[in-house]
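Field log, afternoon session.

UNIT: design team B
ACTIVITY: writing a sequence onto a fixed backbone
BACKBONE:
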């Protein structure tokens, strides 16, 4: 380091001595010639102790070497790199290290300048950032991006062994209702409990991730080939969804599960994730609280569903939907007293699609609100015209999907449809499903009461299917019960006759009227009349007919 005046040398020394970077000058073979105090402090040695040693003695990472054994004093891909030094006490310190050839004036032929600084904090920040980017902040579980990365590695491991991977997608049933009725903080607590239980139930090699919302994924590595997987999943569900007490509320949640195996059900993470999703959809379609393993035929169904969804979107825009109206007959007078609006879809490409198929598609595809609003306004307007022709008022029943009943907007829609058509609110009846009442968390009662206060009446559709308890009916403002057609069909069996009797007696005791659906024969009608059923609906009287034919049908059905 030539400096004839000596001044520059003093300044340089001062800088080198006080700079917080480790500075080492080495000869061509990496032997340390000069070390500054920061270098000594960094590796926990005296400055003089460092001089004369090879750079590799403070390395914790292995440098590349030349054939003669001397270290390569350069980093792959450039002058700088992250590196690790070793302290005398054996501990290591991560550094950022730059190595540049010394200028010839330095007087060390072929020597190097090695500058480094401690990046412990930087790495910690990076790790923290990594963690935040790859974990869910609520439950601290890995998120989707980490799941995919993990799954990639797990698939690779499984490929090299004969082990099976099992991918499980768990979705809490009706979680939104917990959030909506009890508040987000309760929902959050519930998710945290579920996450903890999943972690407690699984083993350290398994991965539990949260995909967002109320969806969790578990990757099981090696559950043991041929293990009784169904039983294991049932145990998992039972353990994870045991009742939880959150802020004094006892929550009994159920969950739906889709499951898929590597390699049988997919050979890459993307396919596996898609297939568990399809299996989960099937579990939900089977009424939730169910487990479904992926099976290839589900793909066909899934494609059908997607095609149907796209076609329905178009149908809504291009007026391919229409309504028919099925008369409801008073058993006492024989008069048509009401009609039920039923949706019809004549698709140019798919033909006639029954509502049992397209209503669920509309619900899943986010189209049910639009479809429901259309049904409501169309039916109210048609009713006004029909009763004009008929010269007397009729009641109009409209089917409403639970997913459509959200919020004030829906109530406003109903009020507007009634107003525009110029009918009385008491002429409109909303048919809701029994399931809606069963799953109630408080908001349903409020919604039904608001409906009632508009003057609209409420009927429970398909009554008796699945749930035979009548007791909860007392909690809801209900005007009418519709006995499910499956009971009417086999009304000649003792069991069904008893159920029908019980429904009629109970409904009357609660001040509700009863409509029997699907009445096809004179025997069925007679039985229902004897038991005091109020109204009937079914092919014995009429199928659903277009609004234009309704006046004629009603007159033909009237007793002479
Ligand atoms: P639902 O509300 O139980 O409607 C009665 C169903 O029974 C109708 O089938 C009707 O055509 C059929 N039916 C009537 N009389 C008889 C009979 O004597 N015997 C037999 N076997 N069946 C009879 P459809 O029109 O296929 O409707 C099926 C379901 O689709 C409806 O069941 C309802 O849940 C749903 N749906 C129909 N239109 C709408 C709508 O506008 N909105 C909503 N959300 N759902 C609708
Ligand atoms: Ca109905
Ligand atoms: Ca029904």
């Amino acid at each position: 380091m030539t400096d004839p005046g000596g001044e520059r040398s003093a300044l340089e020394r001062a800088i080198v001595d006080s700079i917080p970077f480790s500075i080492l000058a080495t000869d061509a073979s990496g032997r340390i010639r000069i070390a500054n105090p920061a270098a000594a402090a960094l590796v926990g040695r005296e400055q003089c102790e460092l001089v004369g040693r090879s750079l590799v003695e403070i390395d914790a990472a292995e440098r590349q070497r030349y054939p003669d054994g001397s270290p390569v004093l350069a980093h792959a891909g450039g002058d700088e790199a992250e590196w690790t030094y070793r302290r005398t006490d054996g501990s290591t310190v991560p550094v950022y290290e730059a190595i540049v050839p010394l200028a010839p004036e330095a007087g060390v032929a072929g020597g190097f300048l090695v500058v480094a600084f401690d990046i412990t904090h930087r790495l910690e920040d990076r790790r923290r950032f990594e963690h935040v980017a790859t974990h869910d902040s609520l439950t601290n579980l890995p998120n989707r991006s980490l799941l995919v990365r993990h799954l990639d590695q797990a698939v690779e491991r499984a490929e090299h062994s004969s082990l099976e991977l099992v991918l499980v997608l768990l979705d809490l049933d009706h979680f939104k209702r917990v959030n909506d009725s009890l508040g987000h903080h309760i929902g959050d607590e519930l998710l945290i409990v579920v996450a903890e239980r999943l972690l407690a139930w699984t083993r350290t090699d398994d991965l539990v991730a949260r995909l967002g919302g109320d969806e969790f994924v578990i990757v099981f590595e090696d559950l043991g080939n041929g293990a009784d997987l169904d039983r294991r999943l049932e145990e998992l569900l039972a353990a994870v969804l045991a009742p939880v007490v959150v802020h004094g509320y006892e929550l009994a949640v159920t969950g739906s599960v889709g499951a898929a195996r590597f390699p049988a059900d997919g050979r890459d993470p993307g396919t596996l994730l898609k297939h568990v999703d399809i299996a989960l959809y099937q579990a939900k379609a089977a009424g939730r609280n169910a487990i479904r393993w992926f099976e290839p035929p589900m793909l066909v169904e899934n494609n059908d569903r997607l095609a149907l969804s796209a076609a329905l979107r178009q149908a809504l825009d291009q007026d391919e939907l229409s309504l028919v109206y099925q008369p409801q007959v008073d058993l006492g007078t024989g008069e048509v007293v009401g009609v039920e609006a039923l949706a019809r879809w004549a698709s140019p490409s798919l033909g006639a699609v029954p509502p049992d198929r397209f209503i669920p598609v509309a619900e899943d595809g986010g189209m049910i609100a639009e479809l429901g609003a259309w049904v409501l306004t169309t039916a109210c307007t048609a009713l006004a015209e029909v009763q004009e022709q008929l010269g007397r008022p009729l009641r109009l029943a409209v089917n409403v999907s639970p997913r459509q009943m959200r919020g004030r907007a829906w109530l406003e829609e109903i009020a507007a449809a009634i107003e525009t058509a110029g009918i009385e609110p008491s002429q409109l009846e909303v048919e809701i499903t029994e399931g809606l009442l069963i799953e109630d968390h408080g908001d349903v009662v409020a919604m039904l009461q608001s409906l009632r206060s508009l003057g609209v009446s409420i009927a429970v559709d398909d009554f008796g299917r699945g749930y035979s308890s009548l007791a909860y009916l007392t909690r809801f403002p209900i005007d009418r019960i519709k006995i499910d057609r499956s009971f009417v069909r086999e009304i000649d069996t003792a069991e069904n006759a008893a159920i029908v009797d019980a429904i009629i007696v109970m409904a009357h005791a609660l001040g509700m009227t009863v409509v029997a659906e699907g009445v096809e024969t004179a025997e069925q009608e007679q039985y229902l009349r004897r038991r005091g059923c109020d109204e009937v609906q079914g092919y014995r009287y009429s199928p659903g007919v277009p609004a234009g034919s309704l006046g004629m049908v009603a007159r033909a059905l009237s007793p002479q």
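LOG NOTE: The radius of gyration is 37 Å.
NEXT ACTIVITY: expression trials, pending approval
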